[in-house]
């Protein structure tokens, strides 16, 4: 009975974090870049939205500015990587560190800012989970449609080709570096949008809101894709699967809390879930089929694996 009571809240949070995971999906699966700046950009979206709402600005403007702030964070990561030659994973870490100070400045030096839900016109809040589910669902559906339309334009297709094979794309005259910057901007913009929804749902923005976001995003991706790719392996189904993965993750998350697991161990639980879903393809190949598993370092050493 207690589990049924927390289920609407788990679905609401799962939808928000599933939207964040779509942003991670764009960088990780489409661009083939492990972008760690999302831990900072989701917090940036939450902080910008909360501060602007506290200042009496309309909700549509707050969310738009939050998306733009996240996109700028993605541009910064992209420029670190493409213009300065910094490896993508380190570029994301640098942006994440910069965003911590930026987010603290947005909050006026405070660690938390609350939103007055009585005066602010919020799209969703934890006090009304059914409405939160509907609102989040509509925003997610709109986002998926926009992404579907965009990634089948000429620019979107070149971004896809950049992630699949940057060398061939460059040989075909594609500006690979520009595509990476655009892709990271889109990715972090969506992550910041999720942050803006999270701030409204919680009624506050905290400087530590984004800590561990990349782990949750990866968990949602691998949980969702393990099912959606078996049903129908296409772009839209993959995005829907990622949203489903976010919901499943938060249902498991809340179920484990009800079982009495200390909150100190929740981050460890997240990491274990991601590790399990990452390991499944390898373990399945090794122990349940006759196919020889591909060595972890295959393709990175040339002659060593020949």
Tell me about this structure:
The chain has helices at residues 2-30, 38-54, 59-82, 88-106, 129-150, 154-164, 166-171, 176-202, 213-231, 235-258, 266-287; strands at 112-114, 204-206. It has a two-stranded antiparallel sheet with strand order 1-2. The chain has a single domain (2-292), classed as Orthogonal Bundle (ABC transporter involved in vitamin B12 uptake, BtuC), CATH 1.10.3470. The termini are far apart. The protein has 306 residues and is mainly alpha-helical.
Short note summarizing the structure:
The protein is mainly alpha-helical and 306 residues long.
Topology:
Elements lengths: L1 H29 L7 H17 L4 H24 L5 H19 L5 E3 L14 H22 L3 H11 L1 H6 L4 H27 L1 E3 L6 H19 L3 H24 L7 H22 L19
Antiparallel strand pairs: 1-2
Helix pairs in contact: 1-5, 1-8, 1-9, 1-10, 2-3, 2-4, 2-8, 3-4, 3-8, 5-10, 6-8, 9-10, 9-11
CATH top level assignment: Mainly Alpha
Overall morphology = globular
Distance between the termini: 57 Å
Number of strands: 2
CATH fold-level name: ABC transporter involved in vitamin B12 uptake, BtuC
Number of domains: 1
CATH architecture annotation name: Orthogonal Bundle
Strand count, sense and barrel status of the largest sheet are: 2 strands, antiparallel
Structural class: mainly alpha
Q: Order of strands across the biggest sheet?
A: 1-2
Spell out the helices and strands N to C.
HHHHEHHHHEHHH
